[in-house]
Amino acid sequence: MSQETIRLRVAGLGHHFELDADPASTLGDLKEEIAERIDLPAGYQRLVAKRKRLDDDACVLGPTIMDGNSIVSMGIGLEDRTKILLLHTPQYQHDQEGISKLNDLNAEIDKVDRGRRSREMENKLVQELIIQICCKIDGVETHGSEALRKMRKATIKKAEEVARKSEEDKRGMDP
Q1: How high does pLDDT run on average in the chain?
Q2: What beta strand segments (E) does 22-109 contain?
Q3: Which DSSP state fits 50?
Q4: CB 59 within 8 Å of CB 76
Q5: Which end of the chain is less congested by CB atoms within 10 angstroms, N or C?
Q6: Which H helix or E strand runs over 10?
Q7: Which region, left, alpha or beta, applies to residue 8 given φ > 0 means left and ψ of -120 to 50 means alpha?
Q8: Cα separation of 134 and 109, whole Å?
Q9: Minimal CA–CA distance to 54: which of 29, 20, 22, 19?
Q10: If pLDDT is split at 50, 70 and 90, which confidence band does 3 have?
Q11: Rounded to the nearest 5°, which phi and psi values hold at 7?
Q12: Whose CA is closest to 5, among 60, 62, 49?
């Protein structure tokens, strides 16, 4: 590992893993990387390090970045091997039903995609199933939750991507 990265140890909610991060990357970037690893959207993550809740997604992970006498970016001051506690935000409990539905719909999209890739499903069937799934996604209520809205949008994009790939397969563009 180079000196340009810091290794962070993330634990909580049944997960335990390490990841390397650039000290100049933001807390928001870290949450996105955690989201990719554990399938918990960044908006539902509460991170704690050094007994402090990490709330400002714009802060850089390393030390504060200065330009002369002015602050360019506030830093959290995380060091190599810092342990980060991963918790749910209070909003998670409120949105749990929608999250569960969207996770189930993501699994349905994955199943259709596997059928598409294995050539067990023809394009027409893939397109019909994706339309049905998109209708179900549209039925997931967000109740004003921005995090749930983002999760729903990402699920729609995933479904659209499977439909697009199926069309490409039909045209012979995708091997």
Answers
A1: 91
A2: 45-49, 52-54, 65-67, 70-73, 82-88
A3: T
A4: yes
A5: C
A6: strand 6-12
A7: beta
A8: 10
A9: 29
A10: low
A11: -95, 125
A12: 62
